[in-house]
Amino acid sequence: MPNVKSAKKRMELSRAARVRNRAARSRMRTAIRRVREAGSSEQAEALRREAVALVDRAATRRLIHPNKAGRIKSQLDRIVR
After folding, report:
1. pTM value?
2. What are the sequence ranges of the domains in the chain?
3. How does DSSP assign 1-33, residue by residue?
4. Domain 5-80 indexed as CATH 3.40.50.450
């Protein structure tokens, strides 16, 4: 446990960021899985658009590497088409 006030505050901020980041990553992974499990191609295309938006947002926030975002989007395109 930190003794310094600024260290305590930093720990609280880090915890909040970790929770937020985990939720965003989970949302992204769920969207990707839904595209893979989609029944029809129309449904898959709609889900792909949503997943790509979440992947781009995660890359912008550096939750994932930008190259990984590109790779995921390419894989999703191959699945849908």
Report:
1. 0.86
2. 5-80
3. ---SHHHHHHHHHHHHHHHHHHHHHHHHHHHHH
4. no
